[in-house]
Amino acid sequence: MNLPSPPSQNLLKYRLILLINIILIIPLGYAVRFYQGLPTEWGWINDSVGAIAYQIFWVLFFLFLYPKASLTWTAIGVFLFTCGVEFLQLWQPPWLQELRGTLPGRLVLGNSFTWTDFPPYFIGSLIGWVWVRLLYNNIEDGFLSRTMQRIKKIIKKIFFFLKGSWEDDSFLHNIESIETIISKILSLVMVGVILVAVFDLIVILSQQLFVSPMGFFNKNLFEFFGLFLNVLIALEILENITAYLRKHVVQVELVIVTSLIAVARKIIILDLKKTEGIDIIGLALAVFSLSLSYWIIRKSNSKNPDN
């Protein structure tokens, strides 16, 4: 049973619908063909469904190029063509084998002959015939026309939304919203880090106090101070984030204080027996630079209380 030739006013719409279906069937066919979640003994499902999608693609593609062609003869022609390509795999001259070695050649020409491919070819051609007939009927009764109108309206809304969002005020507002969301996520993550660090500190202290022999705690006292300062540094980082949420400005003073605490922790847990002089000089310069920066910031803030 053939379809009448599409009216000239529906020809563009008919080809557009075919193109949309082609774009949909290509990734679907590849996804099924190369899906690796099935057991090895069920691999034939990938090959069969991939072959069916292959047939549907060629039916849609040929009718997209020649929309006035006979649907029935197109389906039959695609079936015969793919059967011919399957038999062609029995012929293996060097130049053809080279072509099959490429990805496009392997996908179009295949690389091994098997009788089990013929039933999926027939089923795929039949489904392609039914598929196009349903598309044509839907075009005739106006269903696809109404669907296309809805799609156009949605695209227009998205376009105007993006256009409005690209204006300076809207764009900056959207950026601020994204920054706020990221800051809140970082705050939650930091709270989790602090809770885990405190729990870890309690466990380690409990082990050292109640399990370790007497005098061992004093030997590792500075290491425990380092653990305490880890928690304090995490709290300061959380304070930096929450300060940004309150004022949407990076508090440089808090950043410098956090850096000073981090350097102080390094100095406290420093093993002077294993540290070279250049490392100590570097720490001293870091402390001096941070202290000077902190003094400058404090001096500037005292002159401008509003900041």
List descriptors:
12 helices, mainly alpha, elongated, 307 residues, 2 domains, 80% helix
Compose a concise summary of this entry.
By secondary structure, the protein is mostly helical. Helices cover 80% and strands 0% of the residues. The protein has helices spanning 8-33, 43-65, 71-88, 94-100, 103-109, 118-141, 143-165, 168-210, 216-219, 221-247, 252-268, 277-303.
Description:
The protein has 307 residues and is mainly alpha-helical. Helix 2 packs across helix 3, helix 2 crosses helix 6 and helix 10 runs antiparallel to helix 11. The longest helix has 43 residues. The radius of gyration is 35 Å and the shape is elongated. The mean pLDDT is 77.
